[in-house]
Each structure stands twice: as structure tokens, then as C-alpha cells.
Amino acid sequence: MEKINVMIVDDSYETRSNIKQLLSFSRKLKVTTEAASGEEAVILAGELRPDVILMDINMPGMDGIKATEEITLNVPDSIVIIMSVQGETEYVRKAMTAGARDYLCKPFSGDELSETIINVYENEMKRREKITPLLTKDEIRSRVITIFSTKGGVGKTTIASNLAVSMARSSKKRVALVDLDLQFGDVAIMLNVSVKNTISDLVKEFGQLDSSLMEDYMVTHFSGVKVLPAPVKPEYAEYITANHVEKIISILRESYSYIIIDTSASFHETVLTSLDLSDKILIISTLDLPTIKNVKAGLDVMDTLNYPQEKIHVVLNKASEQFGIRYRDFESTLHKQIWSYVPEDSPTVVTSANKGFPFVMTRTETKVAKAIIDMGIELVRETEGGVNKKSPLRKLFG
Ligand SMILES: Nc1ncnc2c1ncn2[C@@H]1O[C@H](COP(=O)(O)OP(=O)(O)OP(=O)(O)O)[C@@H](O)[C@H]1O
Ligand SMILES: [Mg+2]
């Protein structure tokens, strides 16, 4: 059996030697690399792609959180496990959000350490194996569409909620909208639905979860869209795992034709699961350099994950060439065509968010509403057959 390659990242030489010592008894694990700083870890991880990285949180210079973020973006094959000391819960939470898969509290025993590494590694392998079969099941008529970006504030929630509403109207089918921005989700606010229960309450009944119990947790918006709201407090997010998300999606597939998922700007395991299980990913960008850089990095990660090209559509929000970057240049940087252009229209978008009325219902004459309605029609068409699937949407303006 091949051993699991482990890299240890800790600024203390003593800690690294202790861990090496602990792992030297394991038949399944092998320490292949050590790094004494976050920077070194990022470089070595890129070169050597260890299976598992044990990452200390507190290090001078680049800390373990930042290093985890860099590694999960650039070396998604490596799994990061955080090592913390008691009382660092806030840091641990940040590290998990940055993409760490699990954490260990120092001091830990050799058994604890090797069990955690092996468990996390085996779970991750199972998750990766599932990707392909789930995507090729043609008999599944329901479609999962995840709205994603590697940058915050680009319009994910605006697009996800308006798209869900417009698809419910144009397809006349059942549409679910899931808020997977687990810490700061605002779908419920954007759609002005009153929240009794959220995904946090739902996972408490996880053992019994089926389609009918799921319905009790879905809140009905007046458009007909059923919403599964995000937790009411950011700290509840950590109780929701990739397994939960996987089961929620599979249950929703039994009774909804379209499942639209809003996400946070990260490759947290819950978001990754949603991306894995999606039929389509709409990656949202705006036309400014920091966003383009992050979106490019996000597309590269999806490439590493072997997502087929046609699974991903690039949506340009607040589209305009008047700030110095041309659409053509954006497309050649990303090596991808823009699939949909959504214009900037603050009066419409912001007023609609403040009132809780989706603009695809109340302001259908605006270009911004038309862009999203067309997106919905195209997605329905792609599912139900018909037109050339690869054609980008018609440019609506400019
Ligand atoms: N096309 C648009 N025209 C004008 N304003 C827009 C447009 N799209 C989004 N906005 C505004 O940009 C802000 C961010 O939008 P939104 O909350 O949808 O982004 P997000 O990607 O979900 O952000 P977060 O990462 O914080 O969840 C909001 O104030 C929204 O009203
Ligand atoms: Mg959002």
C-alpha cells in the first residue's frame, strides 16, 4: 500500500521533530517534507504536492491561515489540517473557512494524530471518487446551478436570488434556492422572507432527513421559489459539513427541477461539495484587476479538479468597458468566453434589495433584469434541450 505523504509546517524545530517521531510508528503515513514558515510551506506544497499538510496556526510572517488560503487555492490536491493550541477557536474557524479540512488541538497523542490524518484523507478520497458518477447520471432531470466567485461582493447573491425567481417563472417548475454562504448569507434578507428555521436547524435532524422533512425547512417566497436560509449567526456555520451539503443536494434533487446555490467567496469544503455536485457553475466576475486575478485563480482550481469546460459559465457583472479593461482582454486572460453580461444599475438593484422585491419581477423592463431573465431562459433551454449549448448569450447592450 502506498503511504500517505505528510508535510509538517511549524516554526518550532522541536515541534516538527516531535510530530515526526509520533508519525514514525504509523504504517500508513510518511513525513516527506518539513517547512518552518508559511511562505516556505506555500512554495514546497506547490512543488511537492503532499497528500496532507499539518499546519501550525501561529507563525511569524505568513501565518497558518494565510498559508492555508494560498495552498487550497493553488494546490487543491493537498489537504490541510490545522494544529492549534487551546483557546484559538477564532483562528481555527478562520482556518476552516480558508479551506482547512480539520484541526487538531496541541498537545495530541500519536494515535489521535494518525487517526485524524487517515480519516480526513480517506473522506477526501471518497468525495473525489463521487464527482464523476454523479455528473454523468443522465437520468437525473433536476439541475444544480451554483453561483460562485473567488471574490466577495461581486453580485453572487443578487444574481442567485433573481435568477431563481426568474427561472421559477419561466420554467413553471419547482425551484429551490440554497444559501451556502454559511457565515454571512443574506438571501433571506434579499428576498425578504421571514426565517423560522435555517440550515443549522435542519442538520440537527440529519439522521431522519428526507424530502418531506426537508419541505418543513424550505421557506416559500411569493414568487414560488423555496428558500433554504443560511444560519442566523456566523458561528453556527462550522457545524455544517460537506456531508450535510451532499445529502441536502441529493434530497433536493428528488423534488426540485432546479436547485440554485448561493455561495461564499471561498473553497470551503461545503462550497467545494456544491461545486462538485453542480451541473453548471456560474462564476461571477467584475471588470477590475483584483477580481479578475482571483477569478482566474478560481478557474485554474476548477481545471485542476477536472471540471469539464462546459460546466462553467463566466458571468460578467456590472459589465462596462469604460473603466479601462476590454471584454476581449478579459476573455483572453481567462481563456474563456463571457457567457452573460449583466449591466450595472444601482438604482434598480439596490432599491430592489432594500425592499426585498426581486427586480426580475418588479422591474422587468430594465436591462439588468432582462440580462438575468435571459440567463434563466438559457439555463432552462440547456437542460430541456434545444439550441446550441455553447453559444454565449446575446449581448444586451453596448
Ligand atoms: N449589476 C449590478 N448593478 C449595481 N449594483 C449591483 C449589481 N450587482 C450587485 N450590485 C450591488 O453590489 C453589492 C454586492 O452584491 P451582492 O451582495 O449580490 O454580492 P455577493 O457577491 O453576494 O457579496 P458577498 O461576497 O458579500 O456575499 C450589493 O450592494 C448589490 O446591490
Ligand atoms: Mg452574497
The CATH homologous superfamily of the largest domain is called P-loop containing nucleotide triphosphate hydrolases
* Distance N to C terminus: 59 Å
The structural class is: alpha/beta
**Biggest sheet, open or closed, and with what strands and sense?**
8 strands, mixed
Count of helical stretches: 16
* Count of structural domains: 2
What's the multimeric state?
Answer: single chain
Mean pLDDT: 90
Detailed description of the structure:
The protein is built from 16 helices and 13 strands. The N and C termini lie far apart (59 Å). The protein has 2 domains: 4-130, Rossmann fold, CATH 3.40.50; 137-384, Rossmann fold (3-Layer(aba) Sandwich). The chain is α/β, with parallel strands linked by helices. The protein binds adenosine-5'-triphosphate and magnesium ion. Magnesium ion is lined by residues 156-157, 181, 186.
